Amino acid sequence: MVKNTEQYSAENITVLEGLSAVRRRPGMYIGTTDVAGLHHLVWEVADNAIDEAMAGHCDTVIVIVNKDGSVTVDDNGRGIPVDTHKKTGKSALETVLTTLHSGGKFGEGGGYRVSGGLHGVGISVVNALSIKTIAEVYRDGKIYQQEYSRGDAKTELEVTGKTDRKGTRITFYPDPEVFETTEFDYNTVLNRMRQQAYLTKGTRIDVIDEREGKENKHRFYFEGGIKSYVHHLNQNKETLGSIVYIEKEAKEGLIEIALQYTQSFQDHIFTFANNIHTAEGGMHLTGFKAALTRTINNYARKNDFLKDKEDNLTADDVREGLTAIISVKLPDPQFEGQTKSKLGNPEIRTAVETVFGELFAQFLEENPNDGRAMFGKCALAARARIAARAARDTVIRKGALEGMTLPGKLADCSSKEPEKCELFIVEGDSAGGSAKSGRNRDIQAILPLRGKILNVEQARLDKILANNEIKSLVIALGTGIGETFDLEKLRYGKVVIMTDADVDGAHIRTLLLTMFYRYLREIVEKGHLYIAQPPLYRLTQGKKMEYVYNDEQREEVMKIFSKDVKVNVQRYKGLGEMNPSQLWETTMDPDNRILYQVTVEDAERADQVFDTLMGAEVLPRKKFIQAHAKKVRNLDI
């Protein structure tokens, strides 16, 4: 037995004072230090302004990306208090900016009945992770100002002038030592603040970009609130009936729901608690789903749309084609983690289920035409579900009859450890042949697809499973699809889409991305889906040879070569033009290749892109092409 001679005593315990814990472990407070974490700083400050609006003290919020790259959030609320805090001996302003778990969101009779900034860590974390933070408060006829840096106050609170306005203005400069990038994306900020404007009806939100060459400005104001939100989400879809809007104050909190059915095959349900997007749902979503299924089934039975011997519609049946926003505002929300992705309050489940069930049933009775249209859509989904189950069973049965569960065209790898294995999905037999010859057979599998797969945006699961290429892909992945999907059965840690660098390759890649996003989405969300980046050119001059991946890189590499000798430029239009060793060296070798991981940063924006590019409506796609025509590169002529 080896004796441990190291001392372990009180001296080994590190106590992080003030906000140093935030700087030491920023991921615990903002999730990540990449571009998503950077924008989380904006959300933390903006949420405080939105809280003022939800409390009825503010009707204007302005978010500015300044010329110097900093961000300012300005509101016309009450202004953060500046009087001395009894416990800290500092001003209330300095207390909330330099102390974790401080703010007006705690205790009985506090500053807010409901709020999104529940934990009281938001603005102090922003301060801790910024090289400079400037706080200006307008109240009591005076302008107060104080400057901070990396969590500490750098100046005393001082009065800098007089004013007639009220409110708070926070400007912060993210710390480049903490974040991978400190450049804000205007569209990311814009989409988030548009969402907040929908959720806080009657509040004006301005978003301004003052950076040179990027100047832009948008203003949002929605009297209709989430009803307008549903209209916005469905603007490119064929809708069924009118928008159902329900708003009621229950003892558990305010419940607001808007929904409308469309002719699409996917559901788009977004949930919010105190204006915080709960991406993983929670109790409010559970209550909504239960009430939706039960109410539609009761309505169908009552009106003889469903006969005695017919089975009830399932939860999946009644959600097909549904666009819904569920927004609850409650005094004590129990979120999971600082990023607040899931709501855990059990009482709100019962409240939503009761309130929505009663008012939705009332709507169906008062609007029989809408009721019939909704049931017709759900009943069609039920018939498709039964057909899809039969088709899926056929796929499974076919695999068993062939004596193997894997498609014959799959060149599988020998390793049985999924986390080490990679599946390359390639287009055509030519590229498939090169990939099969050039791969690492231990960990890399190759699945060639013939032609373009079905556009799943315009098809139900039964039709999808009748497509041979999709059928081969689903069997190769091992996860199943639809009701039987199980991520634990995924046979490969990395699933790589490897298509040609031309228009057809881009189209096939888009079709595959649509397939994964709509029907195998957990593979994307858990980080298993990648896109390979093959080189666009091969440049040679004598014994010198370079692969380049875009036109800009080609121009840079050309400068390296001698100007006295001709440079041979080979443009790769397809992976099949490369021999196996070239394909391995450039696109498949883990030491040299470029892989892009596919992530879902904003589900709403992703849904809109797939609807626009792959949906049945032609006009939105035409407008998209016209708007982005000048940005097209590498277009085949």
CATH architecture grouping of the largest domain: 2-Layer Sandwich
Spatial extent as radius of gyration? 28 Å
Which spans of ≥5 residues are poorly predicted at pLDDT below 50?
1-17, 104-110, 400-404
Structural class determined from secondary elements: alpha+beta
Which strand-content bin applies to the residues?
15-25%
Mean pLDDT: 86
Q: What is the 3D form?
A: globular
CATH fold node name of the largest domain = Heat Shock Protein 90
Share of residues in helices: 25-40%
Largest sheet: 9 strands, mixed
Polypeptide structure, described:
The protein has 637 residues and is α+β, with helices and mostly antiparallel strands. It has 4 domains: 20-220, Histidine kinase-like ATPase, C-terminal domain (Heat Shock Protein 90); 226-384, Ribosomal Protein S5, domain 2 (2-Layer Sandwich), CATH 3.30.230.10; 407-534 and 596-600, Rossmann fold; 538-569, no CATH class. Helices cover 37% and strands 21% of the residues. It has 20 helices and 22 strands. The strands form 4 sheets. Strands 1, 2, 3, 4, 5, 6, 7, 8 and 9 form a 9-stranded mixed sheet that branches. Strands 10-11-14-12-13 form a 5-stranded mixed sheet, with helices on both faces. A hairpin with a 2-residue loop joins strand 4 (142-149) and strand 5. Helix 3 (35-54) packs parallel to helix 6 (186-199) and helix 12 (428-438) packs across helix 18. It is globular, with a radius of gyration of 28 Å. The termini are far apart.
